[in-house]
Amino acid sequence: MADLRRDLCKRALHRMLTVLAVVCLPIIAQAADPMHEGARAWRNGQYPAALRLFDKAAQRGDSNAQWLLGRLLRDGTRTARDPARARQWLERAALQGHAGAQSDLGSLLLESRDPTPDYAAARRWLEAAAEDGDVQARWRLGQLHEQGLGVAPDGARAARWYRMAAAQGGVEASYRLGRLYYDGRALAQDQAMAAQWYERAARRGHPDAQLRLAAMLEHGYGIARNTALAARWYERAALQGVAWAQFAFAGLLEQGDGVAASDPLAYQWLLLAADGADAATGPWNVDAALTRIGARLSDPQKAAADRWLRAWRNNERRPPRAL
Predict the structure, then answer these.
(1) Are the C-beta atoms of residues 237 and 272 closer than 8 Å to each other?
(2) Could you read off the pLDDT tens digit of each residue along the chain, which spans 323 residues?
(3) Residue 272, class by beta-carbon neighbours within 10 Å (0-12 exposed, 13-18 middle, 19+ buried)?
(4) 0.70 exceeded by the pTM?
(5) Under DSSP, is residue 190 helix (H, G, I), strand (E, B) or coil?
(6) Cα–Cα distance measured from residue 247 to residue 244, given in angstroms and rounded to the nearest whole number
């Protein structure tokens, strides 16, 4: 999940830089400005030159450049990941009152692998950004209070922060609020409400929300059972690499429950589920299912499925097809 979130952040950052180069910077900056030139170089795929120009602008005290450089170094976008340098640049921008940098710095401190994470500093920076309405800062504060990171666990306060972020369109906040309603730990358990929040996050592409909503629909937890809709949500999560969704979707395909029965498609999804990092410890028996379905397939069908799996591993993310 962390890798997926990092990948989504990288894509969002690339889109942000492209928009910055095409729309914003030509209006507010002259060609001699290194931030403007860096964005143009980025748009043209000249990443080393762009990074040098962003660094130049950051050294001059440009808080936007400092924030941007901190994010690039944090995520390893077109450069080596360097959390220490990322923190330095984010701190410099945060001290200038840059809300985005304050939010990113607080998040970085919250996720630190340091044996003694500075949760107090993380909270201070997140609260500063949250006052300016930063969505990430608000759901991160919810996480801090939910998990008791440097504070006593407080589910009610966590829910308040999640609601604030969700009201602004925060996808992660919607998912986490759904989970609180489903688990009934910090809020009175309400599976119907959980499904509503999961659906909000699922429609915005959150893979775990898609998985959880699909499971609720398949089994009728708190909402009417609808395996056809469950299959669609399982497939969406499966295409994002969620191994449990791949396994569950394969089960529906094998049974023909809510979707047309297809052993070849089920087999391909099972191969992918077995390839997942958590497949060995997941609550399923992929090997038994592969053996059972594989016995009904021809050797050419299984060979074609293996070729499809190799293509997927090479980032040719095409959905399985009938063999």
Answers:
(1) no
(2) 545 555 555 555 555 555 454 444 444 444 569 999 999 999 999 999 999 999 999 999 999 999 999 999 999 999 999 999 999 999 999 999 999 999 999 999 999 988 999 999 999 999 999 999 999 999 999 999 999 999 999 999 999 999 999 999 999 999 999 999 999 988 899 999 999 999 999 999 999 999 999 999 999 999 999 999 999 999 999 999 999 999 999 999 999 999 999 999 999 999 999 987 554 445 578 989 999 999 999 999 999 999 999 999 888 888 888 77
(3) buried
(4) yes
(5) coil
(6) 5
